[in-house]
UniProtKB/TrEMBL annotation:
UniProt entry keywords in alphabetical sequence: Cytoplasm, FAD, Flavoprotein, NAD, Nucleotide-binding, Oxidoreductase, Redox-active center
Source organism per UniProt: Derxia gummosa DSM 723
Gene: lpdA
Main location group: cytoplasm
Protein's name according to its UniProt entry: Dihydrolipoyl dehydrogenase
Localization, UniProt: Cytoplasm
Gene Ontology cellular component terms for the protein in this record: cytoplasm
Length: 475
């Protein structure tokens, strides 16, 4: 006898578990199915983000940043250290503990909100007037039927056609987070978020890191001025970044990995490394879902086709997060998950793609929301720009990190904020002010008139807004 639910969520990543919790808060009977396993074979909800993405990468970034501060930054504070060393297995163990805490936290939230959790792989059986039938295959098989199904199965790393992942020498984001010792030489294909963050981790710990990028421009989606500053700082730190390359061959042997490529000038090059991280994007994960059983539509790239409300063409079936169109960001998935739960409950869910923030957790951090200067120029929008450097910020000086700046872009006539771009210390936290401002259609003058705490990094946000008006106070 199938267990009946108002909503079954397939996948317990950021989009899925949040959708399940919100639906339960709205009084619906909810189940969530997820197949991730931890090292003990138990449930590990949280998806790619918690298990092999956002959370573990930030744990390693934090550990490696502490190490770099101790090695190169403590002396100017009067702190001396002798025989500094990094215990990589202990660092990895801490990362694993952070992941487990997040896994257990989600299971607690399910219990708290009365969400029934099933540990296993969910696949569609059929759909009809009574609802959609789902089979769960795991330690125990279960049959479920739901009035509404939310697919939140996430994405998988895109493999390089020339070299499959073996997670020993050719690594996806998963293998990159489980390296047991600092490689002498590390190669990275793809200068995106994952490539730059993982490259930063191992470069800080002593690896010789080379990043190969196929595009001719560095961080093409980022505001050009920010991207230029990021390239300068990361190169200065020791990352070797080659742009406009074409990979022709990848070979693995007992010694490591050899990559043959042509550089931007078309010259043949060879790079020999101990390990290679491939970070060339991600693909929608519909493995084992058996979507054909219910006629679930996929586009030419393998994403589930949905409308602006995240509805598929199959009645009662919705999809959110990385498995559908739009930016592959955990917080985008969360917003869609909440919105769909509210729509199922008869409310009006809200997602504004124009105010979704982006962050790259390198050092300096990079964060932005809204339009870049190059986008505004292409679209023919008249705008004003204002910029303020962290070099002129008292808190940044006290921190000892004055790299970067905050930049506002505002409509030339109305002064409405069109984009906010930042590179520097803790800008992953500062960007939220820009998101709130844009969501409420604030002007740069509005931000300039708001009192900000002193001394704080956030004063740079106020000053950049004032710069749009040509009246900074501290620069």
């Amino acid at each position: 006898m199938a267990q009946q639910f108002d909503v079954v969520v397939i996948g317990a990543g950021p989009g899925g578990y949040v959708a399940a919790i919100r639906a339960a808060q709205l009084g619906l009977k909810v189940a969530c199915v997820d197949a991730w396993k931890n090292a003990r074979g138990g449930p590990a909800p949280g998806g790619t983000c918690t298990n092999v993405g956002c959370i573990p990468s930030k744990a390693l970034l934090q550990s490696s940043e502490h190490f770099e501060h101790a090695a190169h930054g403590f002396a100017e504070h009067g702190i001396s250290l002798d025989n500094l060393s990094m215990d990589v297995p202990k660092m990895i163990a801490r990362k694993d503990a952070v992941v487990d805490q997040n896994n257990q936290g989600i299971l607690f939230l399910f219990r708290k909100n009365k969400v029934t959790f099933f540990h296993g792989l969910a696949s569609f059986v059929k759909t009809g007037a009574e609802g959609t039938e789902i089979k769960v295959t795991g330690a125990k098989e279960e049959d479920l039927i739901a009035k509404n199904v939310i697919v939140a199965t996430g994405s998988n790393a895109r493999a390089l056609p020339l070299a499959a992942f073996d997670e020993e020498k050719v690594l996806s984001n998963d293998g990159a987070l489980r390296v047991g010792a600092v490689p002498a030489k590390l190669g990275i294909i793809g200068a995106g978020v994952i490539g730059l963050e993982m490259g930063s981790v191992w470069r800080r710990l002593g690896a010789d890191v080379t990043v190969l990028e196929g595009l001719p421009n560095f961080l093409a989606a980022v505001d050009e001025e920010v991207a230029k500053e990021a390239h300068k700082q990361l190169t200065k730190q020791g990352l070797k970044i080659e742009l406009g390359v074409q990979i022709s061959e990848v070979k693995t042997d007992g010694e490591g990995v050899t990559i043959a490529y042509a550089n931007a000038k078309g010259e043949a090059q060879t790079l020999a490394v101990d390990k290679l991280i491939v970070s060339i994007g991600r693909v929608a994960n519909t493995n084992g879902l058996n979507g054909e059983a219910v006629g679930l539509p996929l586009d030419e790239r393998g994403f589930i086709v949905v409308d602006e409300d995240c509805k598929t063409s199959v009645p009662g079936i919705w999809a959110v997060g990385d498995v559908v169109r739009g930016p592959m960001l955990a917080h985008k998935a969360e917003e869609e998950g909440v919105a769909v739960a509210e729509r199922i409950a008869g409310k009006h869910g809200h997602v504004n793609f124009n105010t979704i923030p982006w962050v790259i957790y390198t050092s300096p951090e990079i964060a932005w929301v809204g339009k870049t200067e190059q986008q505004l120029k292409t679209e023919g929008v008249k705008y004003k720009a204002g910029k303020f450097p962290f070099l002129a910020n008292g808190r940044a000086r006290a921190l000892g990190d004055t790299t970067g700046f905050v930049k506002f872009l505002a409509d030339a006539e109305t002064d409405e904020i069109l984009g906010v771009h930042m590179i520097g210390p803790m800008v992953s936290e500062l960007i939220s002010e820009g998101v709130v401002a844009m969501e409420f259609k604030a002007s740069s003058e509005d931000i300039g008139m708001i009192c900000h705490a002193h001394p704080s990094l956030s004063e740079s946000t106020k000053e950049a807004a004032l710069a749009v008006l040509g009246r900074t106070l501290n620069f």
